[in-house]
Each structure stands twice: as structure tokens, then as C-alpha cells.
Amino acid sequence: MADHDKNPAHLPGCPSARGNDGLLPTELHAWMLLLGATGAVEQRLRAVVKERLGVSHDEFLVLCLLATSEDGLRMTRIAELLGRPKTRLTYQIACLQHSDLITRASVRGDKRGIQIALTDKARRLLADASDGLAGTITDALGEFMGPAQREALRGLLPDLVAERPAAAPAEAPDPASE
């Protein structure tokens, strides 16, 4: 990504640095900041995930959920956790299975239940890509959040980047010189 894309001069400063002007309740303001930060991370991750893992962002989310469970998860549980319809998840699961990143198995005693688990190939891919993905997340959060929010997050993400200097506003051309 080019440097001008990271700190474009035509964009306003970090929304969390401006604070809450009292128009929104604190909880709603905090929620909006969280959504903004999440959106910034997702935007950055989409390209990195495709490049390093060869999967879509939604497929990556499925892999991440499965990585937290040693025995795998039922499809219905994955759909619940991701807030996705089961029909959409079925397509993602088929793509992941075709890439040999997950296995599907029937659940004993429940003929409709399907258990999904990571393959060794998926575990290796995730392990190899983890540092780069973590760096992408850290950088995106560091650019979106203001100093107070970054400091609060350092308990969870100790490597969160230091405060970045604000981009200088773009100067308008002098009409007299044209």
C-alpha cells in the first residue's frame, strides 16, 4: 500500500481523537468508534488474507473460529457466531473444503448436524500467516484510533503502534499564481 493511501491529506483526522461533543451518548459514541475501527481492520485484512491464505475474508473468519476449537464446530454454531445465514455459510464451507482447509463430518445421533474442523494444511497456513495478519490489525487500529483509545487497547495488544503524526491538510492552490 502506498504511503499516500495510509495518511491521505484530504481526509479528516482520526475520529476518536476529536472526542465526543455531547451530541451522542457516550455508549453510542464508543460503539461508533468500535465499528469504525473494525471496518478499518476488515478493509486492510481483505487484501492480506486473499494474498497470504488464498481465501475470502468471510472464509477467513470461519477458519479463525475453527482455530479456537480443537474438535471443530457445528455449522449452526459457526453461523450463529458469525451472524450469517446458514445458506451463505454452506457456500463458504464448500469453498474451504474444496481447498482442503476444512473437513466435514456428520454428528453422531443427529443426522442433520454437520461438524466442521480445520485440516493440518489450514493450521499450517494460519500459523505461517499469523504474524503478518497481526501486524495488519495492529497498524489499522493504530491509524484509526486516537491516543487515549490506543493506550486503553495496549493491555490487549501491547505492540499497538505508537501515535502517528496527523497528516498535514492539503493546501489549496493559490488562484493568483495560476
UniProtKB/TrEMBL annotation:
Domain HTH marR-type: 27-162
InterPro entries, per database record: HTH_MarR-typ, MarR/SlyA-like, WH-like_DNA-bd_sf, WH_DNA-bd_sf
Gene3D superfamilies per the UniProt record, alphabetical: Winged helix-like DNA-binding domain superfamily/Winged helix DNA-binding domain
Superkingdom in the source lineage: Bacteria
Protein name listed in UniProt: MarR family winged helix-turn-helix transcriptional regulator
Species name: Streptomyces heilongjiangensis
